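Box S2. Input/output pair 1.
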Amino acid sequence: MSNQIVADIFSRMQVSPAEQTLIGLINKNGNVFGQNATIGRERMAQESGYTIGTCKKATKALEERHLLRVERKRLGPGRNAVNVYSLVRPWLRELSFHEAYIAKKRRELARQQEQKDTAHLASIHGRIPVIPRENKKEEKSAMGYLKPEEIPPCVDRGSPIWYLAQGLEPPRGEG
């Protein structure tokens, strides 16, 4: 799996020989997916055959091109821990730690906003809001029927058609 990641990076991206060596070194020292490689700059320079300055420049170039994620840790003023390196495949939209943190915060804010906007109305003053609804029968009777003034003059007032045009039941004859 890890060799496939390196081959994938080399086939898709143009990298310098120093960057290629660093990618292979990080892949070798990391886990199966090329993640969490803990390696110091001195050891990186020694194993790659480049100077420390060249390793720093190559690391920075890979990081700027989003091919490498670097987790830097500070122990105190002027004291740093060994960096943790992870290979990134940007065409798979793998996020950096910072991007993942921002995405998580955005999701949390969206969720909070959604909770404010929706079904939490019952918590307002301990009451459940009552929304008046019209009865379906009332909606049916009001829809599509005419008012007495709107009925055309050709329809006799009091005839069964006149009542039906208003949505009313015509009176039954005495029998």
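Box S3. Input/output pair 2.
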Amino acid sequence: MATDALRVKYEGEKTITAAGTPVAIPAHAASAVLVMNNNTDGTVIVVGKADTVDALSTPMVGRILNALDSTLVQVVTSSDEVYVDSSVSGKKASYQILG
């Protein structure tokens, strides 16, 4: 019996050095799914497929991840990038790329 289960192809962590300045996460593979995790305590992280994500704007721009939230982002081509920003400088966002 064949299975098409998604497997973790890559794991990483990005530090958002300056709040309000998006950081790119390379897709690493086409036709993948990126799982973005906010492992911080009380910090808001935003994620999106454009470098316009902004955790400091009102309203925030991008998919909002509160503390301990996760989200899935579909990656279509290996040149796709996902961007992440934080409401606090120096916070880390972890991710896994499934394929």
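Caption for Box S3: The two ends are 19 Å apart (CA to CA). Strands lie at 8-16, 23-26, 32-37, 45-48, 63-65, 70-75, 81-86, 91-98.
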